[in-house]
Each structure stands twice: as structure tokens, then as C-alpha cells.
Amino acid sequence: MSTNQDASGGPNVRQTAAELATGDRTDTLLQTEDLRKEFGGFTATDEVDFSVAEGELRCLIGPNGAGKSTLLNLVTGTYDASGGSIYYDGHDVTDLDPHQRVRKGISMKFQVPSVYGDLTVRENARLPIQRFADGDERRRRVDDAIEAAGLAGYEHVDASQLSHGQQQQLEIGMAAALEPDLLLLDEPVAGLDVAEREAIAERVTRLNEAEGIAFVVIEHDTEFVANIADEVTVLHNGEIFREGPIEAIESDPEVQRIYLGGEH
């Protein structure tokens, strides 16, 4: 615990480390401190200090094996941390279960779409929502999810009949329907054509700008990153290597060496 003077200049109040890092007096929504994950003798993330501001759209890039997906899985609770802390919106969430983190406002869409092909678009959209809402609230959220996915008019189409890009859009809409403050996307445009990538970029930026959802997006497509990102973080060997706007990242010779073709 720490002692800080309150904003009015009154008596000192005690704040936790999570409140100091991500509480009401900061613009920081997510903060990891010395976050580490080990798999046997392999260190996937090594004392990572990573932060995301409220409403920010940040992309996470780096070569294969850099620790990008591991970092997101630590934030969601899919993996338990081997060391360090995860602070979110004034709370220490390091030891919370994934469903508890969802309730606090963290949602994630994984790389491979997990929609159910034999269910309709509406039925898929209802799945993540039915645990949290019913009645008119559930119907509103389902409608919002379909709209966010750009699939109005496809409500009664089986998900198996959608293109790969539309399935990706549906799952983004499903994740957004949980009304998170932070949405994590793992390679949302992998395997998509130009038009589908543009559609995903439009969905992400609209949700960020209109709904105020903060994003962390893992992506290898630097053109897509340049279209959406406020800031870019480069991971390498489980550590943060560089951070900054995409223009500075792309022109950095060391980043070019490890990520853009110089080192494999």
C-alpha cells in the first residue's frame, strides 16, 4: 500500500499499487509490471512492463515466438503468470479467473474464429451475451453485435455460410457485445484478402472511436497496422524492444533487422 495526498489537497489516502498504476487519477487502463511467463525452461515473456491508455488503439508486433500471444493470454487469464503483476482499471487482476476479468471489462478474440457453423449469425451473437443479460437487454446487445460485425441482413444465415472474413467480423462483434473497455485481437486479418482486411480495419476503428473501446491488436500485416494504430509496441525474445508511432517503428533499422525481414 502507498500513501498519497488526495486530489483536493486533503488528508492523505491509502492507495494500492493497482490504484496508483491504473486508478481514477490516471488515464492508464491496463498496466503490467515485471510480467513473466515460463514454460518449463523457456521464458516466453520476461519482466514486461506494458501499458494501454483508456480508449487507445495499440498494435503489438514482432517476429514469431516474440511472446505476443503469450502476453495477451496472460492479460486475459488464459495463462497464469510466473511472476509480476497485471493491473486493470484500479484492480490487481493477476490472480483472477478469466470470467472474472471479462466481468471487469476485458474481452478477447483469438486468431482462429470460434463461431459455430451450424448456428445462425444471431444464435452465435447471443452465445456470449446470454450469461450476462436477458430480455430486452439481451436483444439490444445481440442487435448491437450484429451491427458491429457489419452483418445486418445476415441474422438467419448459418455461420458456416459466411466467408472467413465475415466470420472474423462476427467474432469481433460478439466480443464487443460484452461491452468491454479493452478488447484484445490476435491476428484478426490473417488469411484475409484486401477487401476483408479493410472491412476489419473499419470495424475496429469504429468501435474504438464511437464506443471508446481500447484495443490491443496483434498483427503481422504492417499496412493494416498503419491504418489503425495510435501506437505500436514491438516485442522481441519476450521483451519490449521498441514503442512508438508506426512511422518511427517502420523506419527503425533495428526493427527492420528483427521483424521486417532482416532476421528470422
What's the main sheet like? 6 strands, mixed
Shape: globular
Reported CATH architecture of the domain at 28-115 and 175-258: 3-Layer(aba) Sandwich
Strand order of the largest sheet: 8-9-10-5-11-12
Briefly note the CATH topology name of the domain at 28-115 and 175-258: Rossmann fold
List keywords for this structure.
alpha/beta, Rossmann fold, 4-stranded antiparallel β-sheet, 35% helix, 27% strand, disordered N terminus, ATP binding, ATP-binding, AAA+_ATPase
Q: Quick summary of this structure?
A:
With 264 residues, the protein is of the alpha/beta class. Helices cover 35% and strands 27% of the residues. It has a domain of 172 residues: P-loop containing nucleotide triphosphate hydrolases (Rossmann fold, 3-Layer(aba) Sandwich), CATH 3.40.50.
Q: What does this protein structure show overall?
A:
This protein is of the alpha/beta class and 264 residues long. The protein is built from ten helices and twelve strands. Strand 9 (182-186), helix 7 and strand 10 (214-218) form a beta-alpha-beta unit.
Task: Walk me through the topology.
Elements: E1 2-5, E2 12-15, H1 17-22, E3 28-39, E4 42-53, E5 57-61, H2 68-76, E6 83-88, E7 91-92, H3 98-104, E8 106-109, H4 121-126, H5 135-148, H6 164-176, E9 182-186, H7 194-211, E10 214-218, H8 222-228, E11 231-236, E12 239-244, H9 246-251, H10 253-258
Parallel strand pairs: 5-10, 5-11, 8-9, 9-10
Antiparallel strand pairs: 1-2, 3-4, 3-6, 6-7, 11-12
Helix pairs in contact: 5-6, 6-7
